[in-house]
Amino acid sequence: MILRGLTAADWEEQAELIHGSLSTWYRTRLNSAKFGEDAAPFRVFPELYEALDPGCCLVAQEEEGGPLTGTAFFHPRETHWAVGIVATHPGAAGRGVARRLMEEIIGRAEAEGKPVRLVSSAMNLDSFSLYTRLGFVPRRVFQDMKMEVPEGGMPMMESGRVRVRAAREADVAGMADLEMRLNGIRREKDLRHFVENRQGCWRLWVAEDGDGVVRGFLGAVVHAGSKMVGPGVCEDEEVAAVLLRQVLDAEFRGQAPVWLVPVDCAGLVRRCYEWGARNVELHLASVRGEAPEMRGVTLPTFMPETG
Ligand SMILES: CC(C)(COP(=O)(O)OP(=O)(O)OC[C@H]1O[C@@H](n2cnc3c(N)ncnc32)[C@H](O)[C@@H]1OP(=O)(O)O)[C@@H](O)C(=O)NCCC(=O)NCCS
């Protein structure tokens, strides 16, 4: 098996591989056709990830020049490396392709002394087994929630002690510090990338108190290939609810985005149900290596999968 870096010439084939892998897995295991027939939206991964983390993707082949059998993106950050998305061609499943890709990434992260973090489906025993065999430990459970946001907007709610507004360049360090204080990880690069928004698809909102202190932030991606809320980290569920309502209202009217809520944040979960959200899947946040406690109300995302 050969591992090498992704090149622009691979994008088309990689999108087909990721689509084929996800759609086959969900169709055969969960009887779900949620990934559709079209591979084109899956170009979102190389398109957005190569802009955020250039050169941070491995592909696998049986032999030089042969078809791609697997792919894995990685995201080096100040405190950790994150991994996602990982996919093996359905025709090469169970032959150690994903393990080889992961081992290579883990080895590079270890050489820098960094733990590795990822979010994976709790309904997927293949990826659960792959990651836990490699030493990842599930730390938190999230429910994936989805709703059709009304064209007329979300119901009003009291904003409590915080004021919510679109984030600016000057907020970036404060938001990164908040995540460091609450969850022990730092990824300032992502927050800056969101605020710069060169690709036009990134959103980032911040909640601050009356003294201008950052109490939470919440991003989103609004792209033909991915409509998702997150990443977000908040001091408490009230701040998270205010931010989530604002992001849904401002960015997703008439659309049906997905977001992840920690299952133990019962108040936030209840509020999502009141809005009409439905559960569509469960995910686990896992860490290999040092895993600081996650004390914040955390809303991870699959785009970008960097926390
Ligand atoms: C998840 C996925 C990437 C795994 O890829 P793969 O190349 O088939 O996996 P590998 O063969 O490298 O490794 C699977 C490991 O899990 C182990 N495994 C699989 N099922 C298991 C089970 N029920 N219990 C214990 N171990 C199990 C295998 O033995 C193997 O470990 P080993 O190498 O130590 O023997 C692949 O199924 C896929 O692409 N799925 C769709 C996309 C997806 O879900 N991606 C993950 C997103 S988080």
Keywords for this entry:
alpha+beta; Aminopeptidase; 2 domains; five-stranded antiparallel β-sheet; 8 helices; 30% strand; binds coenzyme A
Outline the structure in words.
The protein has 307 residues and is of the alpha+beta class. It folds into two domains: 2-114, Aminopeptidase; 144-283 and 291-299, Aminopeptidase. It has eight helices and 13 strands. The chain has helices at residues 11-30, 44-52, 97-111, 125-133, 172-183, 188-196, 237-251, 266-275; strands at 2-5, 57-61, 68-76, 81-88, 116-121, 137-146, 163-166, 202-208, 214-223, 226-234, 258-262, 278-288, 297-299. The strands form two sheets. An eight-stranded mixed β-sheet has the order 1-2-3-4-5-12-6-11, sandwiched between helices. A five-stranded antiparallel β-sheet has the order 7-8-9-10-13, with helices on both faces. The model has no long low-confidence stretch (mean pLDDT 97).
